[in-house]
Structures are given as C-alpha cells and as structure tokens.
Amino acid sequence: MNDEPAIAPKTSSATWVGLFLSLFGMLLARQMVNYVWPTSTITSAIAKELGMWVIALVLLVIVRCGEGLPFSSIGLGTTRWWKSILWGLLIAVICFGVAGVLIALTGYNGGEAGKALGKLPLWLIILIVIRAGAVEELCYRGYAIERLQAVGLPGGLSAAIPLAIFGVGHWTGGWANIVIALALGGILAVSYLWRRDLAANMIGHFLVDFVGNVLPKLSS
C-alpha cells in the first residue's frame, strides 16, 4: 500500500480552506438547502446538487491556483484511463458484495432519504449519482486524504477522518445507512491509498449508486 502522497504540497492557507471544504462543505450545503426547503422537492434537490458541484469547482481552483499543484496531487490523471475503468469495475464488484451482506444483515430498505430520492424524476436521480461518484470521491478521498497527509497525518488516520465524516454524513438514511457507508467508504479509501487513482474510485462509486438507485427506477 502506498502511504505517501502522490505529490507532497507545501501547506498554506489555501490548503486549510480546501480541507475544510472537502470535509464539511457538502454537509453544510445540504443543511443550508434543508433549512430553506424543509420539505424535499425537485427544486431543493437541484439546489443541493448545484451547491455540491460548486464545492467541487472551488476545490479544483484551490488545487491549481491556490496551491499551484497539478490535479495528479489529488489522484487525477495518475494512470491510464482503461486501467481506471477496470479498477473501477473491480471496486464496484467488491462494494456490491459487501453491501449485499450488510443489507441482508441490517434489513436496510433505503430509509426516508431513499424514499425521497425515489420520488424524484429519473433524469435528476442520474445526475445525483453522477455527482455522488465524482464530488464525494474528490472531497473525501482525493483531496482530504492527500492534504491531511500533507499536514503531517499518517496514511491510516488521513483516510479514517474523512471516512468517519463521510459515514456519519449518511445519517439521513438511518443507522444502517451509516454502517453501509462506512464499509463501502472504507473500501474506497483503501483503494485510493493503494493506487492513488481517483478516477477509478469515481467510477466504482458511481456504478454502486447507479445500480442501487437508477436500475430499480428503470425496472419499475
């Protein structure tokens, strides 16, 4: 396993801002929208998605302009695209197996958050799972792990902190969703520490969410 960051950046105020956004930005965006729209609607869902994409865009700007680093410093473009696809498929298969066991053990059925998601139009659900795969991996794996290591944390702890926040952030789906998120997030974190291939993580994450949320909608 590769516990060293791909490129060791010099920590700066931009890095600390990036760390705050990567760890808490998505949660804050969600809670702000929930405050304005207490009841889930198509409008509120779109607002959440836009807010989370803004977080991702700001992070990318911080990497290139604030830190002056290439995107390879957060695991993008570190390997050939076909390898990323193959590893993404493998990550998805492993996650499917673990998720299947946990769903059987916990009786998880999606919770209230899953029901709300299921009421959205298909096109919006597809956009949500694309965002989940891309932005969540960018925040909780690529940026957070690399920059926590850059400020001096060991690889295991740099993965555990964002994983804990990522897992607890799924509280809207109930305790079973937190357990599943921690398990699958752990697989994604280990994969990232091992290969430093953020694209593979994004593909694997997207496929898991696509099968879990889009295919049932299509079949119904």
Key terms for this structure?
220 residues, mainly alpha, 8 helices
Folded structure, characterized:
The structure is a single chain. This protein is 77% helix and 0% strand. It is an all-alpha fold and 220 residues long. The protein has one domain. The longest helix has 29 residues, at 122-150.
Topology:
Elements: H1 13-36, H2 42-66, H3 81-106, H4 111-118, H5 122-150, H6 155-168, H7 175-195, H8 198-219
Strand fraction: under 5%
Overall radius of gyration = 17 Å
Q: Approximately how much helix is present in the residues?
A: over 70%
Shape, please?
globular
Query: Please, how many helices?
Result: 8
Overall pLDDT level: 93
What is the ordering of alpha helices and beta strands?
HHHHHHHH
Secondary structure class reads mainly alpha
Alpha carbon gap, first and last residue: 42 Å
Q: Give the low-pLDDT segments.
A: none
Number of domains: 1
